[in-house]
Amino acid sequence: MVDKLERFKRGLGGFFSFEVDEESPQRYDVLRRNLMILMVLVTFVPLLLMAGINYHEYRSVLQKEIVTPLRGLVNKTKHSFELFLAERVSAVSFIARAYPYEELADPQRLNRIFNVMKQEFTGFVDLGLIDANGVQVNYVGPYDLKGKDYSEQGWYHEVRVRGTYVSDVFMGYRRFPHLVIAVEQLTDRGDRWILRATIDTQRFHELIASMGLDPESDAFLVNREGVFQTPSRFYGGVLSQCPLPVPRVSYQADVIEAVDPNGRPVFVAYAHLVHPGFVLMVVKPRAQVLQAWTTLKSELLLLFFGGTALIFLVVYKLTGILVRKIREADERREAAFREMQHHHKLSSIGRLAAGVAHEINNPLAIINEKAGLMKDIIEHTPDFPKREKFLALVQAILQSVDRCRNITHRLLGFARRMDVQIEVLDLNDVIGEVLGFLEKEALYRNIDLRLQLAENLPRIASDRGQLQQVLLNILNNAFAAVDDGGIVSITTWDADLDRVAVSIQDNGHGMNQETLKHIFEPFFTTKKGYGTGLGLPITYGIVKKLGGCIEVQSEEGRGTTFTVYLPKKPPEFTKE
Amino acid sequence: MEGLRVLLVDDEVEFVSTLAERLEIRGMEVLVASDGEEALRRVQEEPLDVVVLDVRMPGLGGLDVLKRIKEMKPDLPVILLTGHSATRDGIEGMRLGAFDYLMKPLDIETLMAKMKEACAGR
């Protein structure tokens, strides 16, 4: 287990390590990926946490803000209902106690009492007196209900048990919802009688209307069995079954969440009335209740995603720039390193070459003198046998010595033991001098020499002989690269404040990238058989020494362009 | 120009002897020395018109020999032989009073011309 954990940690460390393999070609991609992951994590995680915390905080606060007034409203309305019913119950109770049975049994008397009651308390519809046998003996109201026998009805038994009774809403004979209040009293002789009043529930509607609910919300009374006591805006009329479950008993207003039959998530605020067993329910669609919250939430989400997008963008760009800079720095360092290596190689090879050249020069001098002496003898001896033959042989030896001498002198030249003689000169003149050597060949091979020499080219301080060497080397290569009838262009221009430039362009066979890498290395040659591989290294060395630089562009089959930049002021030449 | 007395100094015996012979064919009187000491002795003892001196020698080097010759006989012209026309040896030699310097391997006609030139001033 511990082992596994260790391995996981190591794997993770490896994944996020910035110690990437120096040689891996994907190292910059890996570096960038790791940087991005780290930066995104560092910025994104706190953002996510903050967004999450805010979300929950706002949600709970808002819910409280919305739910609390709803609860207050329900409580207040519930009290109104209780008060309304309690007043009616008290009124009936008062009459039952204040008047003896005999008085109430008098139709005129009852009629008068009823009229007073109607004036004092709204909502009473009728009033009836029921004797111990359950028969209505006296009645005031719009219907002829005198003599009706209630002894078989449920409410009659209930009032006999509990003393007072408030019925659920029912339709009764009159086809509109009303409820019954009944109060039991005893006569002096101990006979039971009941005073029964009917109230229409119009007043309930008024109470609900006074809540001032918006059109999307609903409020109604149900009894404990969930039967509507007042009509609902959305869920059914009076006495139909409420589709929402009756919440558990709570006399204090409470809020629960539910889903209504239309599938809307709703808040249900409710409170049970103490007496009778009604429940006041207010239904509000959740979406509406939390509208403010939803708005806030979408703003929060927008902010979050906007922020995230911004973070990603910035991280992406930033890591891009960063890794590019690193890459450039690496490449510069590598280039500098390569340059240094190149220099080192050149100078060590140069030293070696110089040593070899010196050593070879001595035997070469001996061969030269011996052959020279032979020649002298042949020339000074009349009648030398086979004179012509020997002279030709000696001449061949001397020519070979001459070739060897040229090679050793070039080697020594490559060793950069040459002295620089600075003079102020016109680069265009030097080009003219060099072309003097080559015009014959150009003519012979029908090579198109195109000169674009800048007029008023600033004069520069440099070494004429060495510049000639440089230009000759490059031009020789250009001539070797083109076929007969090819084009060689020479262009000079004032490159910048400190430098002038000359470019030599040919439309010859060009070089591939591999060759291009090696052209300044000594003894590298593509001229099989007759190249020394020293021309361009010497050229490179001279240009460096003159404080200039040299650039090559080449495309296989399209040609090559050498560009030499030379300083206008004399280079600070340091003697070896 | 005939009869110039020349001292050739070089540690390569084959080189000096052959060169001496060639110069003699061309009518010069040639003395040879194969090291610095011998060369100085010859300069001391013999009347000479010109000295041809190799810069690179074991023992007493060419430039040291040149200095001593100039101390002994400041008017005696010395032509140096160097590995390369533009080495510091050559330049240094010129500074020390050499008449000129020539590259090995030599062209005999050039050497002759230089020697004549050197002696013409005397």
Description:
The complex is a heterodimer of chains A (576) and B (122). Chain A has 576 residues and is an alpha+beta fold. Chain A folds into two domains: 25-289, PAS domain (Beta-Lactamase); 418-567, Heat Shock Protein 90 (2-Layer Sandwich). Chain A has 13 helices and 16 strands. Chain A has a five-stranded antiparallel β-sheet, with helices on both faces. In chain A, strands 11-13-14-16-15 form a five-stranded mixed β-sheet, covered by helices on one side. Chain A has a four-stranded antiparallel β-sheet with strand order 6-9-8-7. In chain A, strand 13 and strand 14 form a beta hairpin. The two termini of chain A are 68 Å apart. Chain B is an alpha/beta fold and 122 residues long. Chain B has a single domain (5-120), classed as Response regulator (Rossmann fold, 3-Layer(aba) Sandwich), CATH 3.40.50. Chain B has helices at 13-25, 36-45, 62-72, 88-95, 108-120; strands at residues 5-9, 29-33, 50-54, 78-82, 100-103. Chain B has a five-stranded parallel β-sheet, with helices on both faces. In chain B, strand 4, helix 4 and strand 5 form a beta-alpha-beta unit. The longest helix of chain B has 13 residues, at 13-25. Chain B is globular. The two termini of chain B are 12 Å apart. The chains are: A alpha+beta (576), B alpha/beta (122). Chain A binds chain B through residues 357-358, 361-362, 364-370, 372-373, 376-377, 380, 401, 405, 409, 412-413, 417-419, and chain B through 12, 14-15, 18-19, 21-22, 25-26, 56, 83-88, 91, 103-106, 108. Chain B: One of its GO terms (cellular component) is cytosol. Chain B: Keywords: DNA-binding, Phosphoprotein, Two-component regulatory system. Chain B: Pfam families: Response_reg. Chain B: The modification 4-aspartylphosphate is found at residue 54. Chain B: This is Response regulator receiver domain-containing protein.
